[in-house]
Give the backbone structure.
Amino acid sequence: MDKICVLRLGHRIFRDSRLSTHVLLVARAFGAEKAYYTGDKDKNLENSICKINIEWGGDFVLEYIKNEKKFILNWQSNGGDVIHLTMYGLPVKDTIENIKTSKKPKLLIVGGAKVPGDIFSKADWNISITNQPHSEVSALSIFLHEYFSGKELDLEFSNPKVKIIPQKNTKKLVTKK
Amino acid sequence: MDKICVLRLGHRIFRDSRLSTHVLLVARAFGAEKAYYTGDKDKNLENSICKINIEWGGDFVLEYIKNEKKFILNWQSNGGDVIHLTMYGLPVKDTIENIKTSKKPKLLIVGGAKVPGDIFSKADWNISITNQPHSEVSALSIFLHEYFSGKELDLEFSNPKVKIIPQKNTKKLVTKK
C-alpha cells in the first residue's frame, strides 16, 4: 500500500488522551505507517501505542514533534503531499480519485482543539468527509478507507501475540506461542 | 434511506463524555434516525446533541434507556434486526450485502466500557470492521458508510442555522436568516 502518515495536532494530556488514542489506533489499524503528534508530549499515549504493537503486531511508529510548521514545510519540500482533514474542505468523494493518482508520500493532518489558520493555506488539499460536525476519528477512518479502497480491512500485522478469529456469536482470541 | 438507530452502551459521565458525543455526532451525520444510550444519564450529553440539531439542522433524537436487555428483546419482537459492532465479529465486507437485503429496521449496538456477554448471543449479527483494536467511533462510521453506500455523505439536514460552503483553502460558514 502507498505510504501515508498521520499528524495529530495539539494533543492535550488528560483532556484528549482517549480521543488521541483512538485517532492513533485508527491510523495504525487502517494502514498508516507512522503518526506524529504535537501539543503536550505524553508518555502514557506513547506507551499505550507501544503496548498495542507488542500485543497486536506490526511496527507502527508514533513520534512527537515540536514544530508542525517546519515539519509540514519539510514534508512538502521533500516532495510529499499534505492533506488536511477538515469539515470546511472539499468533499472526499469528489477528490479522492485525484488524490490517489498522485504517488507522492502523503501526510494526513488531523486537527485538535485549535487548528492554526495557516494550515488551510499551507495544505495541498483541505478535505471534508461531510460538512456536518462529527469526529476526527471518523474523518480519518473514512478517508483511509476510501484511499485504500477497503483493502486496509484485510491488513495483517507481523508478529502479533494475540489474534482474533472472527465469530458469529461469541469471542475467540488466540494467543500465539 | 432505510431506518437505522444506534444504541450506545454503558455511558459514563466525564470519562466517556467526549467519545460518546463523537459516537452520537457520527450517528447523526451518517444517517441514523435516532440514538439511545444506557449507563449514566447525562444532561450535558443530551444538551450538546440538542444544540447540534438547533445549529446544524435536522431532528436527530437521543433517548436514554434504563434496561438494554428489555429494549433489545423488544426491538427484535417488533420485527427489527440487532447488529452489534465488535472487533470479534464477522467482517463487515463479507456480511454487509446480506445485512442490506433485510429490510427490517436496524438497531446498531456500539459498545462502551463493558459489553455484557449475552449481547453477543442475543444480536442477530456481530460485525467487525477490522479485527484490530481501533475505535467505536470509526467502527460506527465505516459501518454506516458501507450500509448507505456513501450516499450518507450527501445528506442535507432540514432548517439549519449555519451551513458550510466547501472551500479549497479556507473556511466558509454561512448563517441562514
